[in-house]
Description:
By secondary structure, this protein is an alpha+beta fold. The chain folds into two domains: 14-174 and 230-321, BirA Bifunctional Protein, domain 2 (2-Layer Sandwich); 333-428, Anticodon-binding domain (Rossmann fold). Helix content is 38%, strand content 20%. The chain contains 16 helices and 16 strands. The protein has an eight-stranded mixed sheet, sandwiched between helices. Strands 13-12-14-15-16 form a five-stranded mixed sheet, with helices on both faces. It has a three-stranded antiparallel sheet with strand order 2-4-3. The protein is elongated and about 90 Å long.
Amino acid sequence: MANDQITSIQGTEDLLPEQWAYWRRLYGAARRQFALYGYGEIRTPVIEDLRLFVKGTGETTDIVEKEMYAIPGSDGESVALRPEGTPSVVRSYLERKLDRQAPFQKLCYVGPMFRHERPQKGRLRQFHQLGVEAIGSAEPLLDAETILLAMAIFRDVGLSGCRLLLNTIGCETCRPRYRDAVRDAVKDRLGELCEDCRRRLERNVFRVLDCKNEGCRPVIESLPEITEFLDEDCARHYAAVKDALGRAGLEFTEDPRLVRGLDYYTRTVYEIKHPGLGARDAICGGGRYDKLVEILGGPPTPCVGFAIGAEATLLAMESELGPPPDAAPRPEVYVVCFEEAARPFCFGLIGDLRGAGIAADMDFEARSAKSQMRQANRLEARLCFLIGGREVEQDQVLIKDMADGRQWSVPREQAAGEAAGHLGQRQANPGAAR
Length: 434
């Protein structure tokens, strides 16, 4: 019955075969650039100890307070579906003692994340991130490298409209003075702030800067800027990052209100945005998080990294590059069976073709030969193998070029090689006829 049909959970989606073109392009670009920049892939579980994100991501963040999928454990300990990748990578770095292999590690990851937020286009409850974590260096050139790497991925997929926003949020030495200045500036304007801002003000005043409520914007825009409070080391670090980006020819905009929404950031923070996404236009966010390893029980260890939102990036690609091409698999050779008795012979042929690296298929629905030919046309097969009783008896294959209609026969043992040669010839010279 229709009422008994089970549907997908709200905020999740099925990716069908024809939808994979831009996904493959993005994943391919990311893995190419990760390799070029020297980042090795790491995979961590999608389920982690809840405390990892409470301590690492920050208990005052929207992710932990509102969006995290927490699961009570039968042993009394709670676990969570990971809402982001960085704490998991750092946990693995410490647990697997990667620092003993080499204190400086450049790691990358690709995988699904989970947040219980209001579903909308490009913002799902199961979504995917591609990210890097460079662990073990405070070098400002490394901050610049991660930014250049993210931009290289976007260029690789064909995006040219990306815009980089850059800021620094200082360190634990200079930030207290800025925190006091922000608190003093808002204390007489509390009534203009949203309930979340007022509630978080005492625990983490910087949550005010990250508020997305438009009603809070006038207060936020009136607040002092962090650059007025930076100590000498943080100012020098920020200047070095900007200098490296400038020398690389990368344009950026300084945004003094940019703080990112996670508690672990220090010094450099950045976002990459694309105008094709409307109001929620960020496709990448990152920065330096020099205290996170220490927060999670390790020694003082500087780190920097970013995460790219796959779904948001795909929407940016569609807005700039147009709809993705149909990525449904299409055989290069379709084997048409004219008689039921010839089906085992045909099945052996598609095995020969696949073994030779040629995409091949045949009918598995007992359709007529005419219907099989129509299917070959719909699938845009470049060659058809036409097999009837005579071909089976003589151990021959009748080949038809679907572009020019020419037909010729070859012995079965030569059929796969003949197809490979002909397909290669037509690929090199599409106008060539046999």
